[in-house]
Design goal:
By secondary structure, the chain is α+β, with helices and mostly antiparallel strands. Among the domains are: 140 residues, no CATH class; 91 residues, no CATH class; 111 residues, no CATH class; 82 residues, no CATH class. Helix content is 31%, strand content 27%. It is built from 17 helices and 37 strands. Strands 13, 14, 15, 20, 25, 26, 33, 36 and 37 form a 9-stranded mixed sheet that branches. The radius of gyration is 26 Å and the shape is globular. It starts with a strand and ends in a 7-residue tail after the last strand. It comes from Nocardioides flavus. InterPro entries: ACX-like_C, ATPase_NBD, Hydant_A_N, Hydantoinase_A, Oxoprolinase-like. This is 5-oxoprolinase. Pfam families: Hydant_A_C, Hydant_A_N, Hydantoinase_A.
Amino acid sequence: MTYRLGVDVGGTFTDILLIDEDTGATFRAKTSSTPEDQSVGVLRGIDQACAAAGIDRSEVGDVFHGTTVATNAILEGKGARVGLVTTHGFRQVLQIARSFVPGGLAGWIIWPKPEPLAALEDTVEVRGRIGSDGAVVDELDEDDVRTQLRALVGRGIEALSISLINSYANPAHEQRVGEIAAEELPGIAVSLSSSVLPELREYERTITTVANAAVQPQVKRYVANLEGQLRDSGVSGSLSILRSDGGLVSAAVASDNPVNLLLSGPAGGVTGAAWVAAQTGHRNFLTFDMGGTSTDVALVEDLTPRIGRETTVGDLKVRATSVDVRTVGAGGGSIAHVPPLTQALRVGPQSAGAAPGPAAYAAGGTEPTVTDANVVLGHLPSALAGGEVTLDPEAARTAVKTIADATGLDSVEAAAAGIIDIVNENMFGALRLVSVQQGFDPRDFALVAFGGAGPLHANALGRLTGSWPVIIPPSPGVLCAYGDATTSLRDEAVRTLVRRFSELSDDGLRAILDDLSASARGTLTAEGVPEDDLRVTFSADLRYHGQGFEIPVAIDIDAFDGAGGGLAALAKAFDAEHDRLFSFVLDTEHELVTLRATADAPRPEVGAVELEQGDTDPSAARVQEHQIWADGGMVDADVYDRSLLKSGNVVVGPAVITEMDSTTLVLRDHAAAVHPSGSLLIRPVDQSQEG
């Protein structure tokens, strides 16, 4: 019997999911995160999951981890001090940046421009030049390189990034500067732009490389520490880390390229949601992951998450492949407040986090949060996380009463309902960003809700979006960990060309794709994945000649050599996507900018759980009657134990369904049908409960 272990570390909770690969049986643990050292919470959760399964740590196989270490280093400004080496004349590349200011009208007047991750005083220029075609224009002056690197000695830099002009076309100068840096600055981690991001555009390549260098020391320390503690505690399997695009890489690769981990945590949820939705027969869906600190949303079409070429964390935007996830500061710990100037209720983005947490946690928190509002409304039971967190209803009422007093509302319940309405609208706005704003109608998609707080708000979000059914997976509070444990190893190879279609041929393009495929496969075969088990997909970043941006288009490699394949098929696919996004096409020559090959190892063979068949009556799972707030007053609602529900049961709202790691709220005039796979499918009662 073998076990896989998924680990997801969030801002509030650390989730552990232990999976029996033979039967698909799962064992969950949810424990408070330990921001000072995330590995403490991870190991504590592993012990709890092993105890639930009745096994020893030594029986745990491979560990798959979605981490926020890189994300937090950026958000909290705790990255390493980075030195930057540029080509002579490009020293201020980060200061010039891009002429874009976030915010509304006249936002530039009050926008505080963030400080670059590499300070100007820690940036040096070296002489030598590569042309855009890869030819050497000026030879690298190695004496100058040594002089400039020595200028960084004593400045306290903890990492070095090297980004020379046009190095994507020829990395020779960068590689040589890296070799010299190893001699002049021993012990300093070095990031080369030609390795981190071998693509066009100097600023994007430079900021991405600097970001990689900034988080590399912290990620490397964390990964090494966790690997060592896992090994010392008896876990014999290897440690793999989830990338931002939903694929896994070895711990060593993750340490070398941590910029690809900035959305590691949210990517696990989207991957897990695809696994669950496939079992219910829904291939198109929106994901809604509400945790304690934030909510992440994404769109999945035909079980394939939309992949973006940029990753944004706080004020930082880097060029790194990631699942197209949008995040809002709305979670169970989001704090409700009434600004004195406007006297209008606001919720978030400030969060009570894991410490002190919501007032209901009785751990020192006093400010009203979304969790406190749910407690006041009767949506939450008296304990969370399998009894690890006991709730204090009176503390929640006291906190929410401050909102009632500040807004003049006549009851604490009305104030709590207002908090819930506002946070739901905030999350609805995020869902519109990944659907309506991208040209998709949310009514054509299901909604998969997870995270510790997601199922509480899922029914309301389904009503706002018109996305039915709302799917509540088994173990929704630890679905990100489930995604971590059920995805596969992945790597990609990239080449920038910048060629008009008239300058390319199908045969030449196919030869480049074959080279990229071999490169992407090589990393995974080195990890022990059999060559025949690998699957390679291809994409191209295309634009109209003269256009200032690109659109990624998938390449159907199976149809590439046939009639209508190759460049003709690429042009047609690009026109169709451009028309979908912008409602027009141009009679202009197409241009290929970048090619990508992505290699994936096979997904693990994990057995699927199938619930015992029952009828529509869920009364055997009913544990008590309870009062919740609905439509302006308290109403009776049944409380169900999800572990006792059977396939085919239909729970009619208002109702509360409890489980170890989450709580599901079914609203009046809605019903939750239990799918054989264990998911709850919520729909309005006037819609069919089938499927």
